[in-house]
Write a structure and sequence with these properties.
It catalyses: GTP + H2O = GDP + phosphate + H(+). GO terms for molecular function: hydrolase activity; nucleotide binding. This protein is α/β, with parallel strands linked by helices. It has two domains: 188 residues, P-loop containing nucleotide triphosphate hydrolases (Rossmann fold); 111 residues, CobW-like, C-terminal domain (Hypothetical Protein Yjia, Chain: A,domain 2, 2-Layer Sandwich). An eight-stranded mixed β-sheet has the order 3-4-2-5-1-6-7-8, sandwiched between helices. Strands 9-13-10-11-12-14 form a six-stranded mixed β-sheet. A hairpin with a 5-residue loop joins β3 and β4.
Length: 342
């Protein structure tokens, strides 16, 4: 079984957008995960009986096993290595980007990291729906930030009327170039959008093999069922092999609204009959290669998660990827292997 890297999620957004509300929501609703939160300033996080605002390179243990850290940009890489070290027991790391910073520097740091225990978990851009037009006039660079985001939270939606909600959702979706846009209030989003439940379970019980039903199962908790209505998932299962070139074409031109894809792929290409575990966040793509269990059927099972998905297009696009690879094409797996870690 592949041991997944710890996802590192970057939360960005201009001052007052609701980044801290999102972080506090995650800490109050960790869904069984142990979360490492990296912030610029402890003072904005609701930590009882602590007054450590402004301390840099400091770490505070929270009652639920999570960690809260304050760090400047120079120490970020070292801090992530500490949080991801064996024995830290952290399931997901969330970094709050400074309200005026360009988050692409952090994204580049993560994508260039050689630490095998860390994985890119996506760039989440939080925007203030009530102040979006004003923010855009003051900070026109927000258009560029939205284009680079993997997921956009249109926050404080409770402060605008329905017609403005529709206008802003359409505007932001266009600026984000088809990336998923979720309406939220008070930063309340389903935490399992940001990390895999099965990866958390794997770290808690590495001896047990997860079934596909468990991978698809809704979490059993009190985390506001209405949060799930903001996004949707498409499940795809096939016993036929997948044509690697066709799948890579699909991944290069994904339907709008897709935030994450995960699951296992059976290519069946000569010399590449192993199980390939697929993980995508936004444009980020990674395969992990491992062996099938003896009793495990050679089958492709994928979950596509996003907002505003054309579910029929997703399913038909994946169905079109099925088919025996051309056995005379000795380079059919080349593009897949570029993104593969064994």
């Amino acid at each position: 079984m592949v041991r997944q890297p710890i996802p590192v999620v970057i939360v960005a957004g201009f001052l007052g957008a609701g980044k801290t509300s999102l972080l506090n929501h995650l800490l109050r609703n960790p869904q069984g995960a142990r979360i490492g939160v990296v912030v610029n300033d402890f003072g904005k996080i609701n930590i009882d009986a602590l007054s450590v605002a402004g301390q840099v390179d400091s770490t505070v243990s929270l009652g639920n096993g999570c960690l809260c850290c304050a760090v400047d940009a120079r120490g970020l890489d070292d801090l992530l290595a500490k949080l991801a070290r064996p024995g830290s027991d952290i399931d997901v790391i969330v970094i709050e980007s400074s309200g005026l910073a360009d988050p692409r520097g952090m994204v580049r740091l993560l994508l260039n990291s050689a630490n095998p225990r860390l994985g890119y978990g996506g760039l989440v851009e939080v925007v203030d729906a009530a102040e979006f037009d004003t923010t855009r006039r003051r900070h026109p660079e927000i258009d560029q930030h939205l284009r680079f985001a993997d997921l956009v939270l249109l926050n404080k939606i409770d402060r605008v009327d329905e017609s403005d909600q529709r206008r802003l959702a359409e505007l932001v979706r266009g600026l984000a170039d088809g990336k998923p846009v979720l309406p939220t209030d008070h930063g309340r989003v389903d935490p399992t959008l940001l990390f895999d439940r099965e990866a958390v379970r794997e770290r808690r019980d590495t001896a047990r093999q997860l079934s596909f039903d468990e991978l698809l199962a809704d979490p059993v908790d009190d985390c506001h069922e209405h949060l799930h209505a903001a996004y949707e998932s498409v499940e795809f299962t096939a016993d036929s092999p997948v044509d690697p070139r066709a799948l890579m074409r699909f991944l290069d031109d994904r339907p709008a609204g897709i935030y994450r894809m995960k699951g296992q792929v059976h290519f069946g290409a000569p010399g590449h009959g192993q199980k390939f575990t697929l993980h995508t966040v936004g444009d980020f793509l990674r395969f992990h290669r491992t062996r099938w269990r003896r009793d495990e059927p050679r089958r492709t099972q994928l979950v596509v998660i996003g907002s505003g998905l054309d579910q029929d297009r997703v399913r038909s696009g994946l169905t079109a990827c099925l088919g025996e690879p051309d056995r005379s094409d000795e380079h059919s797996m080349l593009d897949v292997l570029k993104y593969t870690r064994s």
